[in-house]
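Dear H.,

Thanks for agreeing to be a second pair of eyes. The structure we're designing against is below in token form, covering all 441 positions.
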């Protein structure tokens, strides 16, 4: 491990870290130097359990040889080619494979480099779709409180995190928000709650009544809101959003950056909940976290409408990234999808889910715990806030890390998203450690 330790000798302050308490981090760094399977190692050589699959990115475990080999081969064969007006073989294969996996109607795929980029792309497609059909006044978006759709301007604007508004101001004009779906009636329920689904979805109808359906381009939701604390949609909620969107010609976008690729026990949350959106964003687990990549899947006729009005031989959609369909990312994704299929990974995840959710639910008996919830291999435990919101949660994160467990904390909510390859006794070790830490905060 000495070579690993020496890698951390650089000063820490040059790197301005994302979503991190930088000054606190410099006092007490949490540096991860190596990973394999369900484990990380820090620079001292201590082993840590990964309870959050990277950052929901790595459900098949770290360091998969299939992906490493595919990436190495691709860098040798073709490291990069221009993304605009040129193509690489891998992207067409990948789009084809994704189209086989996705709900049938979503069979056109636009590639991006991150979840945030995928969200911007989806919103821009929605606006252009309406414009080319003579409905250019449809400029508004509907999002939801406690939503996370990445960090770019449109994404945070449709998102529902208060801190963005505190830090960055107004954001995109013409955005309305529905209420979030975490209601006290559904406390301590694993899976979908029975209560309030239709009423909460009717927020969309109320926004339509206020602004007029003909001003609204799209409604974007995470089927399960992930990073703000695993907010599972109550029964009937997504179905009712779908009905309202259909009735009013509004495009429904599912942001499946966290939910996609087996996290719910199904390929996509759209499959798990039996509701098909018009556009679907994905990222993270598309390459098992190995190389940055994201995509938007789009209904064929949405693409066709945009193609139909463009002059022949002109660019139909004035949008793209230098790293859209990067060949190395495509190779990583192709190897990842093959690995998911060959090892029946989504079924593995689905089989583990009941044991996982049982353990999340069992945290209810701890005095600090005020709610537990989950779906598939996504689970959350809410702690009663201490003196100030977030302090207790951060203490749990820090102490778990010191004792060998990496999980995710938002405010005073602890989030687990175990890998599909996690074994029952690994789960037991994670929850035993969490229990012992909770006794100290
Ligand atoms: N949409 C959703 C639903 C996400 O969860 C993004 C978009 C943005 O993706 P990029 O690749 O641009 O980060 C995300 C990202 C957390 C956490 O701690 C979650 C995300 C990112 C960072 C931290 O839960 N999700």
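And this is the sequence the design step returned. I haven't edited it by hand at all.
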């Amino acid at each position: 491990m000495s070579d690993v330790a020496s890698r951390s000798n650089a000063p820490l302050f040059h790197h301005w870290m994302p979503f991190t308490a930088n000054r606190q981090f410099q006092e007490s760094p949490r540096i991860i130097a190596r990973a394999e399977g369900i484990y990380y190692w820090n620079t001292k050589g201590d082993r840590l359990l990964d309870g959050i699959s990277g950052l929901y990115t790595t459900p098949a475990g770290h360091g998969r040889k299939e992906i490493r080999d595919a990436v190495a081969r691709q860098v040798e064969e073709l490291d990069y080619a221009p993304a605009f007006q040129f193509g690489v073989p891998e992207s067409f294969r990948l789009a084809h494979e994704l189209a086989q996996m996705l709900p049938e109607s979503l069979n056109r795929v636009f590639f991006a480099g991150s979840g945030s980029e995928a969200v911007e792309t989806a919103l821009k497609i929605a606006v252009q779709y309406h414009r080319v059909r003579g409905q250019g006044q449809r400029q508004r978006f509907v999002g939801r409180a406690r939503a996370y759709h990445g960090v770019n301007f449109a994404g945070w604007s449709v998102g529902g995190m208060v801190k963005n508004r505190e830090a960055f101001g107004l954001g995109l004009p013409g955005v309305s928000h529905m209420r979030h779906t975490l209601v006290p009636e559904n406390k301590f329920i694993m899976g979908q709650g029975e209560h309030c689904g239709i009423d909460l979805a009717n927020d969309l109808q109320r926004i339509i009544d206020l602004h007029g359906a003909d001003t609204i381009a799209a409604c974007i939701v995470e089927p399960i809101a992930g990073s703000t604390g695993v907010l599972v949609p109550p029964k009937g909620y997504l179905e009712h959003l779908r009905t309202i969107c259909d009735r009013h010609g509004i495009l429904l976008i599912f942001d499946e950056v966290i939910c996609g690729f087996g996290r719910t026990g199904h390929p996509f949350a759209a499959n798990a909940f039996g509701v098909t959106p018009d556009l679907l964003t994905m990222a993270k687990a598309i390459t098992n976290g190995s190389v940055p990549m994201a995509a938007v899947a789009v209904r064929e006729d949405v693409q066709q409408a945009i193609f139909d009005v463009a002059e022949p031989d002109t660019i139909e959609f004035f949008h793209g990234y230098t790293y859209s369909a990067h060949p190395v990312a495509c190779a990583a994704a192709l190897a990842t999808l093959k690995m998911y299929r060959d090892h029946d990974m989504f079924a593995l995840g689905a089989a583990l889910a009941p044991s996982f959710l049982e353990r999340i639910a069992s945290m209810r008996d701890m005095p600090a715990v005020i709610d537990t919830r989950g779906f598939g291999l996504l689970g959350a435990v809410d702690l009663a806030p201490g003196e100030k919101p977030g302090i207790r949660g951060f203490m749990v994160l820090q102490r778990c890390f010191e004792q060998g467990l990496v999980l995710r904390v938002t405010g005073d909510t602890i989030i687990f998203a175990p890998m599909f390859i996690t074994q029952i006794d690994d789960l037991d070790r994670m929850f035993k450690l969490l229990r012992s830490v909770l006794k100290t905060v």
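Two observations from my side: Residues 225 and 282 are 14 Å apart (CA to CA). Residues 1-6 have pLDDT under 50 and may be disordered.

Warmly,
E.
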